[in-house]
Amino acid sequence: MTTPQLHAFLFLTFSSFVQLSSSAVEFRTWTTSDGRFGAEAELIEANDSEVTLKKTDRSVVTLAISMLSVADRDYVQAWLLEHQSSDTMKPGIVPDDLAESVDFLSMIDPVTDTQTGKWELDANGLASLGSSRARIVIPHAVSGPYQLRLVTQRLIETGSLNVGLVIGNQHQVLAIFDYGKPKRSGLAWIDEKNEPANSTFYRKPVLTTGRDSEIVFTVHDSHLRITCDGNTIVEWTGDPSRLTLHPNFKVPSDRLFLETVHGSHRISQLQYRPISKSELHRYMPRGKTSPADSVALIEHPLGHGTGFLAAPNLLVTNHHVIENAPAGDLKVFFPGERDFVNVHGVLFEDVDRDLAILSLQTRRVPLAVAYDGYVPLGESVQLRGNPTLGGGVTLRNAVVKGTIRSMVRVEGFDFLQTDASIDSGSSGGPILNELDQVVGVIAMKATDEGEKLIHEGVARLDASLKKKSRQHAEDGIAFGIPAQDLAKALDNVRELSAKEAGRNAQLHENRVVFKRLATLAGIRLLEVNVNVPGVIRQQAARVTAARTSADLIELIPPEPASLLRSALQSKSTQNTIALLQQDMDQHLNTIRSSPYLSEMSIRDFNALSQRIKAIEKFAERPGVDYLRFSKTMIRFQKDVTRLMNEINEEL
C-alpha cells in the first residue's frame, strides 16, 4: 500500500461514523398557557421578559414568557443559563440596528408631490392611475444608511414599478421591477449601463398581478440589497459614484421617488427606517467588481481549494474544501497580496450540497450573484479556480472557458454541467456568465461521480456523438451548484443573529475535532494491529483454528501488515498525524466550555480523547497473550464506536 493510498484509507475507514448532519437545530413543541398557540419552533433569542422563536417554515414569532406553559418557561430559564456566558461572533453581515419607523405614505400629497402622470391617495393606499409614466416624489430628505419597506400590488399585468433611491448621501439610482417583455428587473444606471447590461440584471418576473408583495431596500453608503417577499433580487456593492440617474430625471439628490411606466400599482405601505448601527458602516470597498480580484486561494495544512466573495465579507467555497480544518487553520489568499486573510468562522455548511460560507474581513468587492438562477443551455461561461498541476505547482486564479451543456441530477440534487475542463484545486470557484454574474459554484469533476454518469449516457448516444462525449469525459467536465442554491444559502446567513452565527462557527470547530479524533482512533487501532508481536500471531493461528472468531480480533495478515507498518512510519504519514494532533488540547478545552453541546457530548469528547491515548499506550506494550490482546482490542473498538455514535447524534 502506497503512502497516498494509506492517507485515503485513514480518512475513509471511519467515514461511517463521521457523516455529520448539515445542521444542529433543536426544534421542540411550544405552547402557551391558555393553549391558543402551539408550534414546532427553535428558540433563537430570549431575555427575562420574552422569547423569539423560529418556526419550521422559518417565520419568526415573539412571545412574552408569561404567556408560555410552565414546561416552556423552565426550558427558557435553562437555555438562558446555558447561553448567558457564551461568546458570540459577528457574521459577514449582521442584521442592522434600525431606528424608529417613519410612515412616508402619510406624508405624500399627490397634488403637490406628483411630477408626471396621475397618482391618487385613498384609504387603500397610493395608486398610479395608468399613465404612460407616473412619478411622485417623497417629501422627506434622506441621509445616511436606511431601510425602505414598501408593500405594493400590481393592478394590471403590463408595465413596471420603479423606485428612485439615494445611496451614499448624494448619489441616486433607479431600481426597476418587471419592465418590458419579457419582464426584467435590476438597477439603472451603473457605469452608465442600464439593467440588461450590468451585473444586477434579474431575468424573471418579480411581482404578481392582484397580490401584495413586500419589497425591502437596505441601503448603506456602498452597499444596496433588495429583497422581494424575503428573497434577494439584487445585491450591489461598490463606489456609489458609479451610480447615476438618467438626465431626464429632475429629482432632488436627497429624495426618494416612486414611478410606474405603462402600468398601475397600489402602494399600501411605505415605511422608512434609518439604520442607527451597522457592521457595514465603515465598509468601503476598494475598486470595481472583478473576478480577478475576488476569487481567492484557500489553504490549510490538509488541503487547498478555491473560494470567492459573494457578499461583503462572505466567502463561498465547497464544504469538502474546509471540512477538515478549524477556522484558525484556514488561510485565504487574494490576488496581488502576500499576506493571507484570516477566517473568523464557518457560518454555513451544507454537506449534501457541498457548500460552505465563511466569514472574514476584506475591502475586496464581492462578485454579483445571478439571483434569478437563469442559466440557458449553450450560454458561454468562464470558470475560475486554483488548479493543482502536480509537483507542488498551483495555478492562481486560472480561467477556463466553456458552455453550459445540461442540468444533471445527482442523488437528488441538480448540478450544472459544462464542457470546461478543470483540475483538482478549482473546487469552490465561481462559474460566471457574460455579465460576470455567478451562475454556479464548481463542485465536482467528470473524473469522479460525473464520469460515471457521462459514460452511462455515452452508451445511449448515437455514433456521431460518442467520440465527442468520450473526449469530454477524458478532459474532465466541470459540474456546478446552481446559483439559486447559493442564493438561498446567502439569505440563510443574512438572517443569522450574532448568537446563531457563533453557534454555527463553534459547531464547525466541534465537527473538525470529532473527525480528527475519529481518524486518530483509526490510526492508533491500526498501529496496534500491524505491530502485534510475533508470539501473538503464532497464538492467533492456533486459537482461531480451534474456536469461533466472534470474540477474537482478526489480525491483518503479515505481508499487508508489513506494508501498512512502513506506510504508517513514513515521514508524510507522521506529518499528517502531527497535524491531526496539533492544538488538540486547546480545541478540547474550547469544547469543554462550549454552550452549544450537551454535558454528555462534552464528556464523550473527553472520553474519546482518553481512549485514543489508552490505545496508543497499549500499542507500546500489547503483551504476549492473544486472548487478552483480543479482549482489550474489542473493548477499545466498542468504546470508540459507541462514543463516536453518541457524539455524531448531537453534531
Describe this structure in words.
There is one protein chain. The chain has 651 residues and is α+β, with helices and mostly antiparallel strands. The protein has 4 domains: 3-19 and 498-650; 28-88, SH3 type barrels (Roll), CATH 2.30.30.700; 102-277, Sandwich (Jelly Rolls), CATH 2.60.120.560; 288-487, Thrombin, subunit H (Beta Barrel), CATH 2.40.10.120. It has 15 helices and 34 strands. Strands 5, 6, 8, 9, 11, 15, 16, 17 and 19 form a 9-stranded antiparallel sheet that branches. Strands 7-10-18-12-13-14 form a 6-stranded antiparallel sheet. A hairpin with a 4-residue loop joins β13 and β14. This is SLA1 homology domain-containing protein. Keywords: Hydrolase, Protease. Belongs to the peptidase S1C family.
Secondary-structure map:
Blueprint lengths: L2 H10 L15 E4 L6 E9 L3 E6 L4 E5 L5 H14 L13 E2 L3 E2 L6 H4 E3 L2 E4 L2 E4 L4 E5 L8 E9 L5 E8 L3 E9 L4 E5 L23 E9 L2 E6 L2 E7 L19 E5 L3 E13 L13 H4 E6 L2 E9 L2 E4 L1 H4 L8 E3 L7 E10 L4 E6 L7 E2 L10 E6 L2 E3 L2 E2 L3 E13 L2 E9 L8 E3 L4 E9 H13 L4 H13 L1 E6 H12 L3 H33 L3 H13 L11 H12 L1 H11 L2 H9 L6 H22 L5 H25 L1
Parallel strand pairs: 26-33
Antiparallel strand pairs: 1-2, 2-3, 3-4, 5-19, 6-19, 7-10, 8-9, 9-19, 10-18, 11-15, 11-19, 12-13, 12-18, 13-14, 15-16, 16-17, 20-21, 20-23, 21-22, 22-25, 23-24, 24-25, 27-30, 27-32, 28-29, 30-31, 31-34, 32-33, 33-34
InterPro entries: Chloro_Bact_Ser_Proteases, Peptidase_S1_PA, Peptidase_S1_PA_chymotrypsin, Peptidase_S1C, SHD1
Organism: Novipirellula caenicola
Protein name: SLA1 homology domain-containing protein
